[in-house]
Amino acid sequence: MGSGSSKDLHSRLLQSITEHAQDVNCLAVSEDLSVLVTGSEDCTARMWSIRPAETACLGIMKGHTKYITCITITETFVVTGSSDKTIRKWDMTTCECVYVYRGHTSRIYRLICTGEFIFSTSNDKTAKAWLLDESDLVEDSDECDKMEIAEEMCIRTFRGHTLAVYPIIYVPAADDWGKDEITINPLDVIITGSADSTAKIWSFEEGTCLRTLTGHLAGIMCMVTDASATTLYTGSADKTIRSWNIQRGECLK
């Protein structure tokens, strides 16, 4: 590396955001690339405008009682998971919490959101699927028992891993793509990776395990599929990456 390379690298830093009081654990960017949301050990999430040259804080999301572990953005909502065992949905226009999802019994690790569903994984050895919008459950929530609604927001619990569940992927059936209505196709699947060294493929409709992928010698920390969602790639603490045929559940290489 030449003598001027270090200076060139440092010159690319545009701005440092230092408002969080403790470590920043996670972040997400809105689909239009105008908003950044950060989650911290200080139990808050902060929303930033990143379109202008100078980044500006748009609001602070306060409510979690322990550190924030994961964040996702869907439409006009921010969804956060925390070590306090809860998931919170925030209105991006006000930074106010509009719903708290309770059901996990240990820290939340990962979140993904489809626009209709939230999927979460936890140290409690489970993954869960939730309705994003409580109004999809009842026509008039003001007339219903709030506790009853909260219990019914979790529509699936995926049990079978023997240790903490980390990454999660939602693979909708091909004919689900582009649909606006909330529906669960019998061919929709969920894939989870765990500290127990396995990945599991689940039926979203039934909540049952279809296949268990074994071969890694340590926890599976990350996963991704190819564009056609036919091949799964898993990264593990055993220092290897494996590819799998999702339909057959066999290791390819």
Q: If you compute it from the alpha carbons, what radius of gyration comes out, rounded to the nearest whole angstrom? A: 20 Å
Tell me the total number of β-strands: 20
Q: In whole angstroms, how far apart are the ends? A: 35 Å
Q: What kind of sheet is the major sheet?
A: 4 strands, antiparallel
- Estimate the helix proportion, in percent: under 10%
- The string of secondary-structure elements, in order, is HEEEEEEEEEEEHEEEEEEEEE
Question: Which range does the strand content fall in?
Answer: over 45%
Number of helices: 2
Q: What structural category characterises the helix and strand content? A: mainly beta
Mean pLDDT: 89
| Stretches with pLDDT under 50, minimum 5 residues | none
How do the strands line up in the largest sheet? 1-2-3-4
Shape: globular
WD repeats: 17-58, 61-100, 190-212, 213-253
Pfam family, one: WD40
InterPro entries: WD40/YVTN_repeat-like_dom_sf, WD40_PAC1, WD40_repeat_CS, WD40_repeat_dom_sf, WD40_rpt, WDR86-like
Protein name: WD repeat-containing protein 86-like
Overview of the structural elements:
With 253 residues, this protein is mainly β. Helix content is 6%, strand content 45%. It has two helices and 20 strands. The strands form five sheets. The chain has a four-stranded antiparallel beta sheet with strand order 1-2-3-4, with no helix packed on it. Strands 5-6-7-8 form a four-stranded antiparallel beta sheet, with no helix packed on it. Strands 9-10-11-12 form a four-stranded antiparallel beta sheet. A hairpin with a 6-residue loop joins strand 3 and strand 4 (56-62). The radius of gyration is 20 Å and the shape is globular. The two termini are 35 Å apart. The model has no long low-confidence stretch (mean pLDDT 89).
